[in-house]
Amino acid sequence: MSVDMMNTKEVARYLGIHEKQAYALIREGRIPATRVTGKWVFPKKLIDEWIETSAVKGFQEARQKIRTVTGALLAAGSNDPILDILQACMRRSYPELYIFSANIGSLEGLAALNGGYTDIAWSHLLDPQSGVYNIPYISKYLPDIKAVVVNLFYREIGFVTARDNPFHVAGFEDLVNEGIRIMNRQKGSGTRLLFDFHLERLGISPAAVSGYEQEVYTHFDVGVSVLSGDADVGIATGAVSKILGLPFIPITRESFDMVLDQTTYFEKGVQNLIDVLREEDFRNRIEKLGSYDFKDSGKILYSAS
Prior knowledge:
There is one protein chain. The protein folds into three domains: 5-50, Arc Repressor Mutant, subunit A; 56-153 and 256-303, D-Maltodextrin-Binding Protein, domain 2 (3-Layer(aba) Sandwich), CATH 3.40.190.10; 157-253, Periplasmic binding protein-like II (D-Maltodextrin-Binding Protein, domain 2, 3-Layer(aba) Sandwich), CATH 3.40.190.10. Helices cover 39% and strands 24% of the residues. It starts with a strand and ends with a strand. The strands form two sheets. Strands 4, 5, 6, 7, 8, 9, 10, 11, 12 and 13 form a ten-stranded mixed sheet that branches. A three-stranded antiparallel sheet has the order 1-3-2. The protein is built from twelve helices and 13 strands. It is globular and about 75 Å long. The relative contact order is 0.15. By secondary structure, the protein is of the alpha/beta class.
């Protein structure tokens, strides 16, 4: 049979179910199918669309049940070490509320928000042309929601190096020096976009940077890779360098924001989260780490009209 069309046995194998289950789906009218010369056939394109639609619907129903029963918020996107501290403080102040967070990178977080997979996207995406964080990406990556961008904090990000900075790393130009190995962040992360922007600005080919293809998913992963000797340098927050006792060479101060739909912004859990950001207990715990500025914490930076 054509690769664009499947019979009942083929569609059952494609879906990973028994052939009898495929017939049950046909009887219930839950799967796209048509009869040709008395036999059921299934256009592969329509089956793929049905799988995607069913997955999104199922996820959204499950998400709604989770939030109704437990008061949970789902978050996805970028990573920062103090998000764990924020969540711990929130549990103490509001034990009925939960935040479940996935470290998938800023761009993937926005995609998940637009697709209805998450309530909140953590993001720190720099637009090199304007120098503005996150807001320039809204129209392209969030066409299906009315977005709100709320500042959580500003943070310092920079090079974390091996103890005593043996290769004397001072800037991106030094990453091509012989013997230096970097630990990179995954594609789609704000840190990776920042790294690639600076390499392009300086005319440095990624192929010239040893370790460019090595990827991890969090700032702590970068720091631990350097601490363990798997790499000589990586880009991470100042907090990671302080916690691990590693040298830190600042690159920039960036805006770490919360992006969400306007309707979600007014929910109790989100407002409680903003309240915790301003609590003395939370601020006192972060103060010793340095590298953070909460002057605009909770401030709405952008709201779609």
